[in-house]
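PROTEIN DESIGN WORKSHEET
SECTION A - STRUCTURE
LENGTH: 270
C-ALPHA CELLS:
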C-alpha cells in the first residue's frame, strides 16, 4: 500500500524585497527637499539615519524640478521681451533663491580653504596685508558668470529647459555616487546625516538621472553625462586625496562643477 508523502513546507525565497510604504517614501522625499531647497517640510517623528541615507535616491528628481523652476523663471522674463542676458540672470537667481545658494556656499568654502593653503605656501614675509576678498567669493562670482553666460548662449528656450533640467539632475546624481564611494568625514553635518547610501540606491539615482537626461537631450545625453561624470570624478579624487573622505563642501563643489560642465557640453554640441 503506497503512503502519500506529507507535503513539504514551502521554503522562503532567498531574497525578499519589501516595498517601501507611502509614508516612508514621502519622508525620504521630504528629507531630500529640505536639504536641497529652502522648503522646510515637517515630520511627524524624527527621521532615522537609515531613512536619511535612503533619501539621496530622490536627489536627481528634486534637482530636475529645481532646474525646471529656474528655466521657468527665465522664460517668464523672456516673455516680457527682456534681453537674453536678463532672462539668464533671472533663471540663475531663481535657482539660487530656491536652493538658498547651498551648493554655491559649499563651493566657496572649499575654494577658500584651498586658497588659504596656497597663501601659506607662498607667503611673502615683508608683505603681510590681509585679504579683503576671499577666494571663495571670487569662485562664486566666476561660477555664476559661467552659468549666466551659458544660459544666454543657448539657442532657444526649449534647449534651455532641457539643459537646466539635465544639469541640475545629473549633478545631484553624481553627488550620490561620491557619497557612496568616499568615507564620510566625522563632524561634518552633511556627512554625519547622509553617511554612505547603499549600492541599490546609487544605481536607482543614476538610472533616474539617466532617464531624465535621455528624455531631454536624446542621443547627446551620453556625451553630456560622461563629461559631467568625469568632472565629478576629478572633484571626488581631490576629496579622496586631500580630505580623505567627503563633506558638505566637497559635495557642493562637485555639484557646481558637474552642472557647469553639462552647460558647457550642451553649448559645444548645439
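SECTION B - SEQUENCE
RESIDUE ASSIGNMENT:
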Amino acid at each position: 500500500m503506497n503512503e502519500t508523502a506529507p507535503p513539504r513546507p514551502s521554503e522562503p525565497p532567498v531574497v525578499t524585497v519589501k516595498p517601501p510604504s507611502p509614508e516612508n517614501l514621502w519622508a525620504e522625499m521630504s528629507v531630500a527637499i529640505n536639504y536641497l531647497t529652502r522648503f522646510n517640510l515637517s515630520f511627524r517623528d524624527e527621521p532615522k539615519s537609515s531613512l536619511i541615507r535612503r533619501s539621496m535616491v530622490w536627489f536627481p528628481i528634486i534637482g530636475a524640478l529645481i532646474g525646471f523652476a529656474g528655466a521657468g523663471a527665465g522664460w517668464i522674463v523672456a516673455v516680457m521681451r527682456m534681453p537674453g542676458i536678463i532672462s539668464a540672470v533671472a533663471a540663475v537667481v531663481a535657482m539660487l533663491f530656491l536652493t538658498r545658494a547651498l551648493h554655491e556656499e559649499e563651493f566657496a568654502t572649499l575654494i577658500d580653504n584651498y586658497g588659504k593653503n596656497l597663501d601659506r605656501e607662498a607667503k611673502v614675509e615683508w608683505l603681510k596685508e590681509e585679504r579683503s576678498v576671499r577666494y571663495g567669493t571670487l569662485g562664486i562670482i566666476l561660477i555664476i558668470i559661467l552659468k549666466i553666460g551659458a544660459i544666454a548662449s543657448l539657442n532657444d528656450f526649449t534647449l534651455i529647459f532641457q539643459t537646466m533640467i539635465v544639469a541640475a539632475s545629473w549633478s545631484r546624481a553624481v553627488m550620490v555616487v561620491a557619497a557612496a564611494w568616499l568615507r564620510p568625514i566625522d563632524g561634518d553635518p552633511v556627512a554625519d546625516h547622509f553617511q554612505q547610501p547603499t549600492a541599490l540606491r546609487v544605481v536607482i539615482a543614476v538610472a533616474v538621472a539617466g532617464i531624465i537626461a535621455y528624455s531631454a537631450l536624446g542621443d547627446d545625453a551620453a556625451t553630456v553625462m560622461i563629461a559631467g561624470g568625469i568632472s565629478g570624478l576629478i572633484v571626488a579624487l581631490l576629496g579622496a586625496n586631500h580630505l580623505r573622505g567627503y563633506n558638505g563642501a566637497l559635495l557642493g563643489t562637485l555639484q557646481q562643477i558637474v552642472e557647469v560642465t553639462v552647460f558647457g557640453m550642451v553649448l559645444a554640441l548645439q
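SECTION C - NOTES
The CA atoms of residues 77 and 83 lie 9 Å apart.
The chain has eleven helices and no strands.
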